[in-house]
Amino acid sequence: MNRFGPNPALTSSETASLLAVHPSTVKRWCNEGELPSDMTPGGHRRISIDAAVTFAREKGIRTILAPFHPYEPHVWTALRGIEDSGSFESLHLLGLQWARLGDFERLEQLFLALGRSGTIPFCAFCDRGLQGLLHRVGDEWESGRMRVGDEHMISQAVTGALLTMRREWLDNRPGNGKKDRPVAVVGTLEGNHHALGALCVRILLERLGWTVFYPGPDVPIADFSVIQMSREASLVCISLPPGGTMGDVSRTLDVLGQTYNRARPYAIAFGGPSHVSLEGETREGPFESVSFFQECSSLRRAIEQGLGNRGYQA
């Protein structure tokens, strides 16, 4: 039975994980004939994905694959590809296929399944999962194979997955009060309506224990300053427009510098297109620091090294 063919096969442990039971329960079901299985020449049990999901439906067991009938084998193969080899290729191709068919709800569920699976850290989910998909979407649009409206609906679908993941995490996070948490302001620069990256940063910081004020997209520069001062934020994260330039950066720093209070210092972290990124560098100025990040993973490393805390050195 092929592990990654049209009807891929699961091990007893993988089946147990899918059905949220102990592997011994899966073996018992197989031995009793309730769950069809085969044995490899080496004596290892294999259960086809079709048999596993059919059994789950009959037993009333809701699995991570439940929203994807009849595409369960495709989703399982995509998720296993990420876990086994770190490749998002199958996931992105599957997502694009559904987008072309107008099935944006299923696309949202696909990324929600990835986020719930625990297969990868949150930063990899954003940097390689979401960003990788959007790069492919951009290529499709540039080649004329995708309309702007479809691109927007794809963004809304993955945004929906992110917001659901955030709510589920907030509902289940360990109980701890807000006292003494570092505070950040996160949003996109005026003229930038693409808020997906800023939303990823918001969720990342919340998971790292920050209190985050999130005005969202298209925020006037002066408003970042007002929110920073009123909330005593020690970090301001600003997402530049896709066509942003170093001129946008300079203008932002000029406006924020006019009201900067050295008694309440804060760091600025810009995110945006690669042609304005100075990844890993910090510029001089009245601010605690000014840094540029292209990925959540590099931002996370900087946060863990003290970015946004008093005395941070890049």
Protein architecture, described:
The chain is elongated. The mean pLDDT is 90. It has helices spanning 12-19, 23-31, 49-59, 72-85, 89-100, 104-117, 122-142, 148-172, 196-207, 221-231, 246-258, 296-304, and strands spanning 9-10, 38-39, 45-48, 183-189, 211-219, 235-239, 267-271, 282-283, 289-293. The chain is of the alpha/beta class and 314 residues long. The protein has 12 helices and 9 strands. The longest helix has 25 residues, at 148-172.
Give a topology summary:
Blueprint: E1 9-10, H1 12-19, H2 23-31, E2 38-39, E3 45-48, H3 49-59, H4 72-85, H5 89-100, H6 104-117, H7 122-142, H8 148-172, E4 183-189, H9 196-207, E5 211-219, H10 221-231, E6 235-239, H11 246-258, E7 267-271, E8 282-283, E9 289-293, H12 296-304
Parallel strand pairs: 4-5, 4-6, 6-7, 7-9
Antiparallel strand pairs: 1-3, 2-3, 8-9
Helix pairs in contact: 1-2, 4-5, 5-6, 5-7, 6-8, 7-8, 8-9
